[in-house]
Specification:
about 675 residues; alpha+beta; Immunoglobulin-like; Jelly Rolls; 3 domains; disordered N terminus; binds alpha-L-arabinofuranose
């Protein structure tokens, strides 16, 4: 009797919530029993995290809010991004000086010579596919400048709209004969997605310029020279358990010379040596000749970002191997020391006291307290014996000195077959805490692999599902979409990750960001342009799991078995010991409604007000976009309960989170 009246109440709630129409009668499934009082394992706080790589203009041109492209004239073509207007054909008015012998990290600067009133003389920066300028926002201009005695050159700065309209102006007059920073602020009168910065020179004489920079003032946490607030907010909105950085293949470099070297990414941004971005030339169908790494977003800023958003930092370091899809260069074993030392020094940089050699650099940069780094990855997607002989050296050196660091090893680029099987065998010789598996596969693979970890060895290392994304077409294709079919398949797969949370300790979708005008890789979790950003359906799937990660794993069984696709249903459940909630995630991959009866097997009292959060679309091809950023986004409704049994109608092709509060 009690159950019947409760079911009526729950059904009424769902009619009100729009999840069930009165006429429809969904087929009933065998009940799902949630074993609330028997927790199976702890859910790691790191369970759902994020993977950051400077791909698709993720850093420069993306989250790093610098608007000037090629600010220090170090691109392969030193004037790339700049257009020059001069009153004479004489090539001596705008010259690039290279002082490589004395300034190896930042060899070039621009020398401007202008000639009294015979103007105009100007240089204009086009930004990264234009500059996103916003009405009412102040823009902070800075430059390193030097001028000889007697020079009277001043700079008129203008923010320009795409159509050439002036959106803000100011004047700066460098005074120093030695290099010194000059700054100015310009307020923008109108929003424009493809703005530019023009510097007009007036007066007579010479002026040397370097690190020409323009940042919005409304960065994340209002940090000068910081990160785009809208993009960081999207990351913070995931409440990620960890932040993996700086990649991905970017760690490896196409060749060793362009590998990621963290020591060159800290300290004064003007002394961080720019290198080519490995995605600049990677894909013939998406060449990006203006893609370089300024390292304005460097290792200090990554640690700071992780701290800001409450994520554990997880740096991945080069292990003496360049990308095996490219040059596959190897550092000889007798020259590996430098690489190992980089790892040891990084631990000191992140965790050492403020008076230690590397900790003091962190302190000087503004963070005397240690960052508390616990995890470190050795190599990215490396494979073969060359990887393991190098991994072994790192493992020994780090374990000897820092036994508490959790080490992450790779398993190659694929989740099965020869290279993967070889890695799994080899790994038996070592003691990584976590191993990184990557899967870029079609949605069917994700559905089928919801059981992937059910039979994994429980007495070995833990799993870091470090890069995954369902592919609607093939990886990197322009037609590869972040559509609902892919997101739903990932959700089904993620119930499998959660169900195996005793062995799966970290997971992250990849890649994270894609600039709509400058991408190389598809699909991506978050898309943006110069002014806007949106989360894909895949983003909302990640968010629904992450915000409801709970603290302990529970069993949810149907006829004694986990739900791994029977009738298109996938499910997992957790207990949250801080909120005393039972949280059940159910994916209905079928194309029709299904009625799902849940029984909470518990001695606890069930509180009457629960919550039902649904992410769904009837259209598998549906995507979010700048125009419709939340076409597919979770909807939350109250769920009325009356005891331990409830009935829920699962809409077709949906992910549902059921939250039940207990006492
Ligand atoms: O996520 C994009 C790329 O995919 C990563 O850089 C690499 O690790 C993988 O191959």
């Amino acid at each position: 009797m009690r159950i019947t009246s409760f079911i009526c109440l729950a059904l009424l709630t769902m009619v009100a919530a729009g999840t069930l129409s009165c006429e429809e009668k969904a087929p009933a499934l065998a009940p799902l029993i949630v074993e609330v009082d028997q927790t199976v394992a702890q859910i790691q706080p790191t369970m759902w995290g994020i993977f950051f790589e400077d791909i698709n203009f993720g850093a420069d041109g993306g989250i790093y809010a610098e608007l000037v492209k090629n600010r220090s004239f170090e691109f392969a073509i030193p004037r790339m991004g700049w257009s020059i207007q001069q009153a004479s054909d004489d090539s001596s008015h705008f010259v690039i000086i290279n002082r490589g012998q004395t300034h190896p990290e930042n060899p070039r600067f621009m020398r401007v010579k202008v000639d009294g009133n015979k103007g105009p003389w100007s240089m204009t920066n086009s930004g990264f596919r234009g500059m996103g300028l916003k009405q009412g926002v102040r823009y902070l201009f800075s430059v390193l400048a030097a001028r000889p005695e007697g020079s009277t050159v001043t700079m008129n700065l203008s923010l320009l709209a795409e159509n050439g309209e002036v959106l803000g102006q100011t004047t700066v007059t460098p005074q120093n004969t030695d290099w010194a920073s000059c700054t100015a602020t310009i307020e923008c009168s109108r929003t424009d997605a493809r703005g530019r910065l023009r510097i007009e020179f007036q007066g007579t004489g010479q002026l040397d310029l370097d690190m020409v920079s323009l940042f919005p003032s409304d960065t994340w946490n209002n940090r000068q020279g910081g990160l785009r607030a809208d993009l960081v907010s999207l990351l913070a909105g995931l409440k990620p358990g960890f932040l993996r950085f700086p990649g991905g293949c970017i760690v490896e470099g196409r060749e060793l010379a362009t590998r990621y070297q963290w020591k060159k990414t800290i300290g004064d941004p003007a002394r961080r040596q720019l290198i080519v971005n490995r995605w600049n030339t990677e894909f013939a169908h998406r060449p990006t000749p203006d893609y370089f790494q300024s390292f304005g977003l460097g290792f200090y800023e990554y640690f700071q970002l992780a701290e800001d958003i409450g994520a554990e930092p997880l740096p991945i370091l080069n292990c003496g191997m360049a990308c095996q899809f490219n040059t596959a260069e190897l550092v000889p074993m007798d020259q590996l020391d430098e690489y190992v030392q980089d790892a040891l020094d990084l631990i000191e940089f992140a965790n050492g006291p403020a008076d230690s050699p590397w900790g003091s650099i962190r302190a000087t940069m503004g963070h005397p307290e240690p960052f508390g780094m616990k995890y470190l990855g050795i190599g990215n997607e490396q494979w073969g014996p060359q990887y393991f002989e190098r991994y072994a050296v790192f493992e020994k050196a780090i374990r000897d000195r820092y036994p508490d660091i959790h080490l992450v090893s790779g398993t190659g680029p694929a989740p099965s077959e020869k290279l993967f099987d070889y890695a799994k065998e080899e790994l038996k010789k070592y003691t990584p805490n976590l191993v990184d598996e990557h899967y870029y596969r079609n949605p069917e693979w994700f559905l089928e692999n919801a059981t992937r970890y059910d039979n994994y060895d429980r007495n070995s290392y833990k799993i870091f599902a470090g890069e995954y994304a369902a592919q609607s077409e093939f990886t990197c294709s322009p037609d590869n979409k972040n559509n609902w079919e892919c997101a739903l398949a990932e959700a089904a797969f993620m119930t499998g990750l959660e169900r195996n949370a005793d062995v799966v300790h970290m997971t992250s979708y990849a890649p994270l960001f894609g600039h709509l005008d400058a991408w190389q890789w598809t699909p991506n979790l978050i898309w943006f342009d110069n002014l806007n950003a949106y989360g894909t359906p895949n983003y909302y799937v990640q968010q629904m799991f992450s915000l409801h990660r709970g603290t302990d794993l529970l069993r949810v069984l149907q006829e004694g078995k986990p739900l791994t696709g029977q009738n298109g249903i996938y499910a997992s459940a957790v207990w949250d010991s801080t909120t005393h909630e039972v949280i059940v995630k159910v994916v209905n991959a079928a194309e029709q409604d299904q009625t799902c009866r849940l029984t909470l097997n518990t001695a606890r009292e069930i509180l009457p007000e629960g919550e039902l959060i649904v992410l769904q679309s009837k259209d598998k091809e549906a995507v979010n976009s700048i125009a419709q950023p939340t076409l597919i986004a979770p909807e939350s409704n109250p769920l009325a309960l009356n005891g331990k049994d409830l009935e829920i109608k699962l809409t077709p092709q949906s992910l549902t989170v059921v939250k039940v509060r207990t006492r």
